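Cross-check.
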Amino acid sequence: MHHKICEKYKITGDKMKEMTVIRKLLLLVAAAFFFLIGNSMLYQENAAFFMDQVQEDGQSVNQTYSLTDVLAANDGLTLSENTIDTAEAETGENWESSFDLDAWNLLLVNKQHPIPEDYEVKLGVIKGSMKCDERIIPELTEMMQDAKKDGITLVVCSPYRDMSRQDMLFNRKIKNYMRKNVSFLEAYKKTAQAVTIPGASEHQIGLALDIISNTYTALEEGFADTAAGKWLAAHCQDYGFILRYPKGKEEITGIEFEPWHFRYVGKDAATIIMKKNLTLEEFVQRVRQQ
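Predicted model, tokenized:
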């Protein structure tokens, strides 16, 4: 009898332990659920769009920041002055003579023109660890403000990158291709069309930004068809930016179409480049030949 009673209590004790474990699991699941719901509501209602991971053609971008974040981190912004009158840049016949290719904002960086060894990046903080050239932050902020007035919420991701991060992105892309049974040489060639070779990336000089929106967070060609993508393509030059890698110009830039990648060149150069459908390579060539 005593033995049976012990067995009974043993079984009851085991069940209680099991139920305790189940309760703990249910509590954890509930906590996770409400955490996700809460974050989702904050994401939609608040303009501070922080994302742990945005896919950059299969590569992760650690942080993104919206207008609210940029303004909070940069009080007292003042807009920089144009180098020449914009109206003259739009209508002048001999516009090529108006530009100095030694100017910091017109530095051509690509596979054929790597970053000069003595180049010094003048970094300013966008927010947290995200940085870019401090001289472009006023125009970037103004562009985001004006887009917001038009109902477009722009989000900045992947601005300045140092050499180590560019190396990591490039090598990771090569490995991704090689996992698909592609040779190293072929993987290198394909990677160089999607990720700029380390030492030849505009991100490394702080003048290039990847810009998306709160409703489209992937760095994909489809961004071009979104309201934000169309707004940027139509208005970026008003703030000194250009669509750096346009469609149909891949053979000139050496990079596939990237509707999210914008480069600062100054308002005057940007006005001409975008109006005349030029790449920075073509613009620089015309200025050199004048």
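The chain has a mean pLDDT of 78. The first helix runs from residue 2 to 45. Passed to J.P. for a second look.
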